[in-house]
Write a structure and sequence with these properties.
With about 325 residues, the protein is an alpha+beta fold. It has two domains: about 80 residues, Serine Threonine Protein Phosphatase 5, Tetratricopeptide repeat (Alpha Horseshoe); about 210 residues, q2cbj1_9rhob like domain (Jelly Rolls, Sandwich). The protein has eight helices and twelve strands. Strands 1, 2, 3, 4, 6, 7, 10 and 12 form an eight-stranded antiparallel sheet that branches. Strands 5-11-8-9 form a four-stranded antiparallel sheet, with no helix packed on it. The protein is globular, with a radius of gyration of 20 Å. It starts with 8 loop residues before the first helix and ends in a 6-residue tail after the last strand. This is Fe2OG dioxygenase domain-containing protein.
Amino acid sequence: MKYLHGSSNQDTNEIEKAITDISTKLAASTSEKHTSEEEEASLWKRLGKLLLDAGEYAEASRIFRKGAERCPTDESLQHHLKVYNAFHIDNETCETTEDLPPLDVTNMSKDIFLTLDVPPEAIPEEVIQIAKRKSEHVDVQELSKLLHASKEPILSKVACKYIINAAEKATAIKGWTKDRHLQAPTCDIPAFDLENEVVHWLKDAMRNCLFPLLAKAFPKAMNIDHEKLRIQDMFVVRYDADNENRRQGFKYLKPHEDESIISLTIALNDMTDYDGGGLFIASTGDLLNGDAGTVLGFAGKIVHGGYPVERGTRWILMKTHRAKRVGMF
């Protein structure tokens, strides 16, 4: 099976060879009893990572889930499986609390986002290849529109406080995680660890509100269908200043790339609650932020980071998204 689209022949051959080699090793490991679970889990994760690099997000998701079934003690693979079970399977509906207003995008204007350009040289290769799958004639200027900040809050303050309270309630039992993201560690709790009603509310909020808005904001050449967007990961993050008593979170997040087509940051508290902070975009030098409910969307492969918080605590909901391809699940 060929996985790559639009890459150079050399890159295609090298990655396809690596995929074939690892697939062969996995086939052998599943039939050999002497292969340890740790060794097999490493192969599943390497294969999934190669597929992510190739832009085959749905196939990567399938590989991670298969690896989770085979390796039940590997935390990384189990995380992928929990995200899938929480957000990609239509479970029974769950009523949310009455104090959360329904999300309705019918009255929102199409230009709700302020759009910023990235320099042509900073446009991720992944974005260019996605556009080339639709047409060989790619308008680079159109593809540069990859940074979006809502001009007004999209989620209500009540909804934002609801998410913060849910995170604090869950971490009082489970604690905060600080070592899941090796390249750019955050102090966070996965959304699937929140109460079921919160998970259902977040799923509905994504499908009915944010996915349609994001699909409209990004370049048409990327051909993003909001009905095919899928959550790759979602977690509540806190940033805390150094001088805060009983500090929990990290002060900042170092610049990095996400393994996603689209990444999304939602502010959960107002900027008056802290000094500093914000989403830093390396290629433009922009620092994007807003009060509770403000949504920031950007191409995942754009280098970005969390600007240092100098006072107080900054809360955000972070999500990464991939695109589902028909027939891959």
